[in-house]
Design brief:
By secondary structure, the chain is mainly α. It is built from 7 helices and no strands. α1 packs parallel to α4, α3 runs antiparallel to α4 and α4 runs antiparallel to α6. It is elongated and about 55 Å long.
């Protein structure tokens, strides 16, 4: 199987898994919440998700196309799969379970995973490192957004 086909398959399986754990109507989940004033529109969240999967595809395709699939490449591949899985777990916590506190706290281990992948990626695929660095920047925003969302919707506040 060619690297492009494998990368496509992995991203499609991850996206379908994410959709499965998210549920049938994520938009209604947003409507029920008090959102921070700086919340993007729902369509922007969809665009962010698409860009995330494009980034994952580009990185996976590069890793799988390597002529010498060294230990570093194997670790990077494992971390990309873990990142995709972690993203699905976050969606399950946030959408399916409605666990705002847990979904906010989940950014810490998930962010550490993405930082580790970014550091590992830089010497083996600089463009992938740049993409992941931009994603790390987005994750800072997303973590702050998630924390504020939790505060706004916590009955104790």
């Amino acid at each position: 199987m060619k690297p492009t086909m494998i990368a496509t398959t992995v991203c499609l399986v991850a996206a379908m898994s994410e959709a499965l754990v998210t549920g049938t109507d994520p938009r209604s989940r947003f409507r029920k919440l008090r959102l921070p004033s700086y919340s993007p529109a729902f369509g922007i969240w969809i665009l962010i998700g698409l860009l995330y999967y494009v980034m994952c595809f580009v990185i996976l395709r590069h890793l799988l196309s390597a002529p010498d699939f060294s230990r570093l490449y194997r670790w990077a591949l494992v971390l990309v799969i873990a990142m995709l899985s972690g993203n699905a777990v976050w969606n399950a916590l946030f959408f399916r379970l409605g666990a705002l506190r847990l979904s906010s706290l989940a950014f810490f281990p998930y962010g550490m995973l993405v930082v580790a992948l970014t550091v590992l990626m830089i010497p083996i695929y600089a463009f992938g490192g740049v993409l992941l660095s931009a994603y790390c920047g987005y994750l800072v925003f997303a973590a702050c957004w998630s924390y504020r969302l939790w505060q706004l919707n916590d009955p104790k506040h």
